[in-house]
Amino acid sequence: QVQLIESGGELVQAGDSLRLSCAASGRALNSYAMGWFRQAPGKEREFVAAINWSGGRTTYADSVKGRFTASRDNAKNTVYLQMNSLKPEDTAVYYCAAGVRYYSGSYAYTPRDFGSWGQGTQVTVSS
């Protein structure tokens, strides 16, 4: 099973940018579709972005579309989430996850689509 470790979360101001990283070990990341989720206090974990094994296809939640970009470097066994124009409502713990399959189109990702998870990294956006 692949092990995942997120990093890059911090306290920023509204309008700032951050790049989260998710480093994998144990197995080659190019075997997996990857996802990013987030969970704010008192709320359920919600889908943010997904990227297929090659990085050529991505899907985003409507709330982050146009502001966030998922990418991956399989040679470094790492996936990234570039977050621009951050808003206070983006405040959450962000998790990366590895899954077997990337679904195209309007598929509604849920946490059940991913079998391996990192421990999360806190992103706090102040107004």
Please report the total strand number as a whole number. Answer: 11
Radius of gyration: 13 Å
Number of distinct helices: 0
Overall shape: it is globular
Average pLDDT reading: 96
State the end-to-end distance: 39 Å
Percent range for β-strand residues: over 45%
Low-confidence stretches: none
**Strand and helix order:** EEEEEEEEEEE
Class from secondary-structure proportions: mainly beta
| Helix coverage percent | under 10%
Let me know the largest β-sheet: 7 strands, mixed
Description of the molecule:
The chain is about 0% helix and about 45% strand. It has no helices and eleven strands. The chain has strands at about 5, 10-15, 20-25, 35-40, 45-50, 60, 70-75, 80-85, 90-100, 115, 120-125. Strands 2, 4, 5, 6, 9, 10 and 11 form a seven-stranded mixed beta sheet that branches. A hairpin with a 4-residue loop joins strand 7 (about 70-75) and strand 8 (about 80-85). It is globular and about 40 Å long.
What key phrases describe this protein's structure?
seven-stranded mixed sheet; globular
Write the SSE topology.
Layout: E1 3-7, E2 11-13, E3 18-25, E4 33-39, E5 46-51, E6 58-60, E7 68-73, E8 78-83, E9 92-99, E10 116-117, E11 121-126
